[in-house]
């Protein structure tokens, strides 16, 4: 038995089995999916550096599966994160209805993503891609009818993307008669420029949708915010990475890395990559601005995800060794911290029942673990030392500066700076400030929810200190990509042409500085005293407990006023009006069925005469 | 030749009736007319001037002296089918009249779009 | 053990006319007769498969050798279609046992068996006029079944169907008359052989008449005005029979005409264009239907459009795709209709709006409907995926990228309207004040057969592909068909 079909078999079989056996008892459901995930995960883990190819012919199509280092990297992300989400949901989904459906969709989604990364031909890639779409669709519409609109939007946009991909892949097949990555890579440079361009556009439509590139991002906020919290984490954490994975496949695997020789280059970046980088940075900029003005915490995180994916896409677009490394590093990193944040916000929702930041506040004393997780999460997100986000951002800037892509660098910097605003909003409005009275009695979330959050936090700290453990894997993965020389690094030092950085040093300096300042403020300058929340005077009156001193409402009002003009135009509304217009147009078409039998008979005769006349002319 | 002309004119009259007449019964009659026209056409195809029925009634009758028997067999079957359609159509027309109290085909259009 | 294939036609016919007699003695027996008889057909067509795949089984009736006399020519194509028809018939027959309560039930079973007789006859016969007769048996029973529920709309739908069907039958008869005049034979293989000596203008006239005639049953646009009305007003199992059996007979006739009998190159392009128009018009019309069965009818027309596109490619793999799609449609459309039938029965209304929250009250039924919807949208790993893949890939391989793009656009529309219904079923709350009714086990069993087959074929498409290959070859390579019929002498 080949290992790859075995892994997929365990995963899909486990999903079905957990659904069927789950009818007996809830725990069986969770245990079965847990075992399936764990065993297949370990099998997958053991395949590091082993390329074991499995191929078969099904319905006249050749199907090839294998695990190469790149799929290993993405696969481990999927398995690790999927496990976290599963642990988290044991507590989160407890007592909720339709856990069976949840477990099933979760397992199928994970299984299909593993399928995507192990595919070495476009048909099985598409096969698993579609499974992923419907499985995640089931999760988007999980919360009843209100979710239906978001769900259908998600599904229809995904279907458009997927069908664009289908068109492209069969165009390739018609041209060269094969769908295997290796054969396509060998023949890609033989395609004409026009054909290549149309293929790239069609593929980017598919992958850009999942990777939430502006202007294809409109499904993301709705879908992320409306699905159950553990699944939002999976959505943002790994599902969106499949789009990134697809872009990598397109740019560096099936095209044989030949864009640089086929297209015009600008500062050493091939035109498609350069344009992709700009799309990425615009995505980051726009999404970050919108994220700042959100009041719904999950929507904020969704827009933040779009922005972060923008960086990753940009890094892949630049596409030299440093760019790719930073892109992949940022991808892994984004999985970790966005997972932390979504799970933490889910925890807040679990206890308080609201996602609206204006209704929350002061939860720091009630949910300290969650607070720390969010704190670490936003530090990583902002890319400041000492956590792993910093390493990724550093490499990204270095890649941009090395290529002298000044405007891109400036725009990236602007987006990163604006990101601080929403980071602050996230932690302030939820955990600091005045706590509404109704939340005085809430408790910290159960252990099963805390474990994944804390594990992910530890991981981001670890990667901050020892990024080279991950960088090794990334460098190994890059060997499978065409046209990329693996990035050289030694121990904790990141070498590059314009200077290096030693993570241990940086982390130590930051750590020491933190401790020193902490000690100074607690000993030498100890002039502070504990102040109660209401320990202030408003015009000589002591505020009562009912007075709201929390500024979460209309947070960042000046900022929102400033960007209001920009936000007025929304791609979402444009699509909506196009869809409505089309639907009305389609509706007109059915009036051809008038309901009068005689008219139908007339159609028959007209058709007959038309055929006869037309046929006589042609003969 | 006259058979061909007769059959074609029957078919055309029938078509006219089906497409133009509003009365349900007239439409059904027109359908029968088309059918009858085609039956005559089929017989005309099989008929060869100066020959006799394909029955070996006298021993000296040879196959060259007979008309083609196959179209006649076809027509017999087709007549049965036409009869079935007409009968069914008329029962449906009766039921339509029961429900709608009209025989105007253009007024019976509740199922549309 | 294999019986004489003639029994596949004779037995249902006999049983059909025995039912009213038996009904005199016992009211309970007639409902089981179709299950037994069609079960026999199913068994027989499976047993025939290994023989017909090698070379067509020619059944000589009353000692008349081809091309004289009427004989059954059971090639791979006919056998596969007979299998499809018996399968759908079998499932619907099981479903009928408890579902049909409207009197007179024995007439219902009689007409149902006659449809099976006719459709099986159409796909098995080797004689053009015989084919016409069987088609008429099918369609006259279908008209009658459309009006089976004696309400005003049923009669209206039946009349429209009858009007268009009647015109179609005269067209076919006229076409046969022309063909007989110029070739002097009615045997399909013999006609195909002699057709090349016929003046192309005459052949064209005959072909146009036959295409229009069979096109009505095959739901080719714009000949399909009857379909939405008939599907939605007939009793639900009959809707499933229309989608799974009657249409298949029409499509078979159409394919047989253009592939085997006539040889015009241009007709294939024409068929592809008409298929595309059929597909797009149907999907657009289905978008805002308020009645679920009417929506399913339009969806069925759309699927047939896809089949026509694939037939229009006129390549081996294209025809394989078309047959595969027909098979999938024969599995899924009955599934959708049968589950929708019970949903309509429980909600007491044909409107989609009234199906809210059925997923909670009737989980099995809603699951069957959702499953059918997902499969027919072509989502992996279900059976609809593979046939769609084959058709799209073959369309693009032959250079019709635009056609493929439009087909995919149609699929997006399809996804929208199916998901709206599925979403309503599962995710819209509804006040639970209706009394609970019991879902019959026989219906659940019938639908489970279809679901299991859909999953099995989805996971292992080569199971059916191996049989579709020779069937497609029979159509594409017509000299093979002619030779095999005459090889018997």
Q: Characterize the main sheet of chain A.
A: 2 strands, antiparallel
CATH class of chain B: Mainly Alpha
Pick out the low-confidence regions of chain B. none
- Domain module tally of chain B: 1
Number of helices of chain B: 3
> Which structural class matches the secondary elements of chain A?
mainly alpha
Q: Low-confidence segments of chain A, ≥5 residues, pLDDT <50?
A: none
Give the overall average pLDDT of chain A.
83
- CATH fold-level label of chain B: Helix Hairpins
Compute the CA-based radius of gyration of chain B. 19 Å
- The CATH level-2 architecture of chain B is identified as Orthogonal Bundle
Q: What is the overall silhouette of chain A?
A: globular
DSSP helical segment count of chain A: 23
Oligomeric state of the chains in view: heterotrimer
> Can you write the helix and strand succession of chain B as a string?
HHH
Given helix and strand content, the structural type of chain B is: mainly alpha
Task: Describe the protein.
The complex is a heterotrimer of chains A (619), B (113) and C (489). Chain A is mostly helical. Among the domains of chain A are: 263-488, no CATH class; 572-618, no CATH class. Chain A has 23 helices and 6 strands. Chain A has helices at residues 3-21, 26-45, 69-92, 99-118, 122-140, 148-176, 181-187, 193-210, 219-226, 229-254, 259-262, 271-292, 297-318, 321-352, 368-382, 388-402, 406-431, 447-465, 467-478, 503-522, 557-568, 571-589, 597-618; strands at 54-58, 61-65, 265-266, 269-270, 493-494, 501-502. In chain A, a hairpin with a 2-residue loop joins strand 3 and strand 4. Chain A is globular and about 100 Å long. Chain B is mainly α and 113 residues long. Chain B has a single domain (2-107), classed as Helix Hairpins, CATH 1.10.287.3510. Chain B has helices at residues 2-20, 24-46, 70-100. Chain B contains 3 helices and no strands. Helices cover 76% and strands 2% of the residues of chain C. At the A-C interface, helix 5, helix 6, helix 22 and helix 23 of A face helix 6, helix 8, helix 9, helix 11 and helix 16 of C.
